[in-house]
Amino acid sequence: MRGGADTGLRLRPTLATLDCLGSRKLLPAQAVAELREAYVFLRNLEHRLQYLEDQQTQTLPASAEDRALVARSMGFADAAGFEAALQQHRGNVTRQFEAVFAGAANRAGRASAERAVARQPGRCARPRTARRAQLRRPRAVLARLRVFRDSGGYRRMSASTQARVDRLVRA
Asked: What long-range pairs does 19-26 form, CB within 8 A, spacing at least 24?
């Protein structure tokens, strides 16, 4: 997210980028450690899967025998231990990803909402319009619409799609 403006973050090796993010305090030390461990684990897994299949792949084998073989090659006694570690690393990556992007989305959402209010003052709170649509709880519906418009899903839409949503839902 910051690499576009900060050329110091445009590093090729992922681990070097993680170290840079940690040293600049852009990510907490715990996040850097978890992401580093997950990266190494997942890269090692990817290599073993490619050796097993003799082709580029990131897909775990379907057979229990091959899964056990991958688990042993990763240093685990059995597939269950390996799969528990895999889930732990995946969970850590997901949690860190969500923490980073949820924070960015909240900041971007606030900025987006502020710009929308500046462009169309008074348009963000029209309970009268919602009542005319015969909604039972117009204020609750409007609140949900505001949350949706501040969401990452809405912001990821193209400008034309956002415009269509805005035309459909005039809140």
From this structure: 26/2
> 12 falls in which pLDDT band (50, 70, 90)?
confident
Tokens found for residue 67: 């899964």
Angle among Cα 154, 155, 158 to the nearest 5 degrees reads 90
The domains located in the chain, with CATH, are: 1-119 (1.20.120.330), 123-171 (no CATH)
State pTM to two decimals.
0.58
Tell me the per-residue pLDDT of 17-32, one tens digit each, with 9 for 90 and over: 899 889 989 899 999 9
Residue among 87, 88, 81 at smallest CA distance from 67: 81
The whole-angstrom separation of Cα 14 and Cα 89 is 16
| Distance, CA of 98 to CA of 106 (rounded, Å) | 11
- What string of DSSP letters covers 59-94? PPPSSHHHHHHHHHHTT-SSHHHHHHHHHHHHHHHH
